[in-house]
Amino acid sequence: MHSSVTVTAALRQFIGDYRRLHSPTHHQDRVLDWLCACQTSALGGRMAECVSGCGWRTPVYNSCTDRHCPQCRGGKRADWLAARQDQLLPVPHFQVTSTIPGALRQIARDNPKVVYDLQFTATAAALQELAANRLDAQLGIIAVLHTWASNLTFHPHVHCLVTAGGLRLDQEAWIETRTDYLFSTRVMAKLIRGKVVAGLREAFGAGELLIRGDPAHAEVAFKAAIRQAYRHRWVVDVEPPDGRSAARAAKYLARYVGGAAISDARMVAISSTEVTYKTRRGAMTVSGAEFVRRFAWHILPSRLNRVRYYGLYSTSNVHFRWARARKLLDAPLPPPRPEPPAKTCPACGGPVRERTLPGIRWSRPKHPPKARGPP
Question: Does residue 263 contact residue 274 with C-beta atoms inside 8 Å?
Fold first, then answer.
């Protein structure tokens, strides 16, 4: 693949077409601007130069550091994965996936923060409720939001890493579970459906939901979507550990933590009007504006956390229940991680100094800006 065939190159080339044909929110516009400016002189940077006198020097342009950027999230993903190695309890972990049904996906696309928050809390609450009732224990859960299918269509679901067992509610013992069965997926699906629908009804009653179409018929459209959602079984998938270590399971989730909806490795070609990229069913070609549109669907609302921690893995429990669980499992606390090595000259190995290069200083909005309309 030629180096110029990248996600960022496609965004830069077709962002104007996308804005002419569609109505992105202000937040989506802002994020796309950041991604297009990433690692260019527009954001400024540093001039790195060797101080040993070998003459090596090179400009290093600033990254946008946006969580949706395909160019600069690899380091963040690696940092997250390293931190999880310290956090994960030394027990098998299930992978539980909870999917938002098709009947609610239009509501989710128009109201991502409300629906994503509900999906997170409903999935974690259902798992903890079943654990309390059937195991008398509290689980450790790490949940990661994933919003895309391989063809970049909108397919929001939550991946959860769940401990196979939990800390007994009186905190005096660790309760082990089978490694081939967690809970009934049918029961989990019903619990999650009930909690999500109840939350949506409350949000609609409070006027917090945007319903596409005629405002006069918003209630009718909302009730129709809820009825449709009840007609089909919600998809909840449970993957047993099967001998897979917790570290390996975390590595699988890491690809969704800081990555974009599509990586440069999946890009095939960019023409004057179209973009071709790989999917699970082979290469797919769409117009440039459609490619940017699909990419923009997966830009998360400002301040919405893609990764959340519940139960034994929540930050409020780390100093007591998590430590208690490690003690009961006879697992020592992890040692502190070493500091990263200092930068050295690639030519002679000597020390390197950096001086700042000027650039445009764009400030991110402190509060989520008002949307111009649904994407």
Answer: no
